[in-house]
Amino acid sequence: MRCRTKIQEQLAAGENVVLLANHQTEADPGVFAHMLAASHPSLATDVIYVAGDRVVTDALCKPFSMGRNLFCVHSKKHLDDEPELKASKMETNRKTLVAMQRAFNAGGSLVWIAPSGGRDRCLAQAGCCCSSATALRM
């Protein structure tokens, strides 16, 4: 309870708060909102999720994202999957970065991000599960 109160104080003071997660699933925003709705409704509704494009394009994922604040990005790993869409995906990412910068410059933003992405993959040499070696170095 104290952590959430501290976050509210920081947001009220105009500070930005970034929640780093090891993993993110489509259901996380709904679960997070449900957990906080009664005790901290503003935290439940004002959080901005950084998510891959799947959350707005995949028919199974999209319902979980509706009504949520999202910064959508295309994974660098998948930019070349469809070469004819690469320029469009890069433009979307650029626009997302501009929107993120504006939000952070304004202050008082609560952002949830999973730097390693939403898909954990085992890295035998690292002895753990994580989607990329760079995420381990963070």
List descriptors.
138 residues, alpha/beta, 4-stranded parallel β-sheet, 6 strands
Would you mind describing this structure in some detail?
This protein has helices at residues 2-12, 28-36, 41-46, 54-57, 62-65, 86-106, 133-137, and strands at residues 17-20, 48-52, 69-73, 110-113, 122-123, 128-129. The chain has a four-stranded parallel beta sheet with strand order 1-4-2-3. Helices cover 43% and strands 16% of the residues. It is globular, with a radius of gyration of 16 Å.
Short description:
The chain is an alpha/beta fold and about 140 residues long. The chain has seven helices and six strands; from the N terminus they run H-E-H-H-E-H-H-E-H-E-E-E-H.
Question: How do the strands and helices of this protein lay out in sequence?
Answer:
Elements: H1 2-12, E1 17-20, H2 28-36, H3 41-46, E2 48-52, H4 54-57, H5 62-65, E3 69-73, H6 86-106, E4 110-113, E5 122-123, E6 128-129, H7 133-137
Parallel strand pairs: 1-4, 2-3, 2-4
Antiparallel strand pairs: 5-6
| Secondary-structure element pattern, one letter each | HEHHEHHEHEEEH
What does the main sheet amount to? 4 strands, parallel
What would you call the shape? Answer: globular
Structural class: alpha/beta
| Average pLDDT metric | 81
Number of strand elements? 6
Strand line-up of the largest beta sheet: 1-4-2-3
Tell me the helix content.
40-55%
Alpha carbon gyration radius = 16 Å
Distance between the termini: 27 Å
Number of DSSP helical runs? 7
